[in-house]
Design goal:
- This protein is of the alpha+beta class and 441 residues long.
- It has helices spanning 3-8, 27-34, 49-56, 94-103, 117-126, 137-141, 143-152, 166-176, 200-212, 275-290, 323-331, 336-344, 376-383, 417-433, and strands at 38-42, 60-65, 86-89, 106-111, 160-163, 181-185, 195-197, 221-225, 230-240, 246-258, 264-269, 296-305, 309-316, 360-365, 372-373, 388-391, 400-401, 409-414.
- The protein starts with a helix and ends in an 8-residue tail after the last helix.
């Protein structure tokens, strides 16, 4: 307002407005506004894909290492191992680590491995950044907590007991008197096998075997009912839309076919818009809501039982990192590291799912029936089949194999389901005819 205008009117009708007191901005936020954007990757794994994706986006990469990580992972990694620009060790103080990350301009926090899930949730919450509620960490990483969350939200759950006592487990089995049980570790990050048991002796043996595989004191275990329904794998991405609402997207669903010995023989891509694809998508969204998932990838294993419908067997807060899984995802236009980075930076525009239409994808684990070696000529033949998209790097000429231990997988792709089936039958025929070092007959 100019002086001439103010002079024409009495000053009392123009009360002066006191200048608002300037509130000092927190040091870590002020520093963040002057610092290039940075992403904190908690407990980074050996794969450098995630920090490389942030580098492609123009973000600085900060490795947050845990006390339990080896010393070789504590320094900035080489470009081949991730190209981190800074390393921040976590030594037990959440407040100190969060303050240091804030001063470095961290705008996104993501777990680089299962070991970093809990700390990543807490750091994102402390920095007021997109992430999962720390209160949901247990439900996303423990089979017992998952079962409780499903029950609390009115979803059908498996009959299950979580305990560290083998005696209590066998007593529970005797009380429930089911035909068969599954024994495994409670933590979904352990990737422990699921052992099917039909007697107290088998339960005790499975308990001992699994505990022996875990270092340190006894770990919590789970004994649950064994269900015979068909198995499915459902991969999802969660994030917030422009209005801040949590959205869950099913990226791909796989039908798992098992042998009588419970080994996975093949995984077939399920059409998104088919009846089963839609049914499982509706169910899995309710599961993710029950588990309070709001950010990132979740891999869910389900069983479908006529009369009971779909049942959650496990939910893991990481996408499958197997070579064949990554190759199949790329064939669908998905990239695990890109998805993780864009979920962490609250950018859903790059994580949309495109319809895979008439594309037929099949994952084929190989199954040696004896110890031996991969026959180089037969291996070359199956790798050159028309629909073979990918062969794991472990499938090398003359590579040793062990009986009943899959040495790797193949991924088949075609727009013609008959071509995929023909090559699948050819692979199994080569296994019978000497792929593992001689005629199996």
């Amino acid at each position: 307002m100019n002086a001439e205008f103010k002079a024409r009117y009495p000053a009392f009708i123009w009360p002066s407005v006191p200048r608002q007191k300037e509130v000092a901005e927190p040091a870590h936020r002020a520093a963040a506004s002057r610092t290039p954007r940075a992403a904190a990757i908690v407990a980074p794994g050996p794969d450098g894909g995630l920090p490389s994706e942030f580098a492609r986006l123009g973000w600085s990469r900060i490795a947050v290492t845990l006390d339990a990580q080896p010393a070789t992972a504590r320094g900035p990694m080489t470009p081949a191992g991730g190209d981190f620009t800074r390393t921040v060790p976590y030594r037990g103080s959440l407040r100190r680590t969060a303050r240091e990350l804030g001063e470095l301009g961290v705008r996104a926090v993501v777990a680089g491995s299962p070991a970093g899930l809990a700390l990543a949730d807490r750091l994102a919450d402390a920095l007021d950044l997109p992430g999962n509620d720390p209160a949901s960490t247990a439900a996303r990483g423990d089979l017992g907590a998952q079962n409780q969350a499903l029950t609390a939200h009115g979803l059908t759950a498996l009959r299950l007991l979580r305990t560290t006592s083998r005696t209590r487990a066998t007593q529970w089995a005797a009380f429930t008197a089911l035909p068969a049980y599954v024994v495994t570790t409670a933590a979904t990050t352990d990737n422990a096998p699921e052992l099917v048991c039909r007697s107290p002796k088998e339960i005790a043996e499975a308990w001992h075997t699994l505990q022996a595989q875990q270092p340190g004191p006894p770990v919590p275990m789970v004994i649950r009912e064994h269900v015979e329904g068909h198995r499915y794998l459902v991969n999802t991405l969660s994030g917030r839309d422009a209005d801040g609402h949590v959205t869950h997207t099913v990226t791909d669903t796989w039908s798992c076919h098992h042998s009588p010995a419970h080994a996975v023989e093949r995984l077939d891509l399920v059409p998104q818009h088919g009846r089963m694809g839609r049914l499982l998508a509706l169910y899995i969204r309710r599961v993710l809501e029950a588990l309070q998932v709001s950010t990132g990838a979740t891999a869910c294993e389900l069983a479908y039982l006529p009369g009971r419908g779909p049942l959650l067997l496990s939910a893991r807060a990481f996408a499958d990192q197997a070579e064949a899984a990554l190759a199949a995802r790329l064939a669908l236009g998905r990239d695990t590291h890109r998805d993780a980075a864009h979920c962490a930076i609250h950018d859903q525009s790059r994580t949309s799912v495109r319809a895979h239409g008439a594309l037929h994808l099949l994952r084929v684990p190989l199954h040696p029936d004896r110890d031996g070696r991969l026959d180089r000529w037969m291996l070359r033949t199956i790798r050159q089949l028309p629909t073979v998209l990918h062969a794991d790097s472990t499938l090398l000429p003359d590579a040793p194999v062990r009986a009943h231990v899959p040495p790797g997988e193949l991924v088949l792709r075609s727009g013609d389901p008959r071509a995929v089936e023909a090559d699948y039958r050819s692979i199994r025929a080569h296994e019978r005819l000497g792929l593992y070092g001689g005629d199996a007959s």
